[in-house]
Design goal:
This protein is mainly alpha-helical. It has a domain of about 40 residues. About 50% of the residues lie in helices and about 0% in strands. It has three helices and no strands. The chain is elongated. The two termini are about 30 Å apart. The mean pLDDT is about 90.
Length: about 70
């Protein structure tokens, strides 16, 4: 299946199967994780200080840097 998807789209596909019914997809898990990161950042002191200086500021995304090791 991955080979056909690559042939059709020129994008690499990773397909994982689960025996659990109702298991969240990787994308759904990533969305939930990103939402939690945003919520935690908004509770932080740095964000609160930014809002004091820029009251109209809004945190809309977080870019998590991975270690290159």
């Amino acid at each position: 299946m991955s080979a056909k998807l690559y042939e059709w789209t020129n994008d690499r596909w990773i397909i994982s199967l689960s025996k659990k019914i109702g298991e969240l997809s990787k994308k759904e898990k990533d969305i939930i994780s990103k939402k939690k990161l945003l919520e935690n950042a908004k509770r932080g002191e740095v964000y609160k200080k930014v809002l004091e200086i820029f009251p109209d500021a809004e945190l809309i995304d977080i870019d998590v840097k991975q270690d290159e090791n």
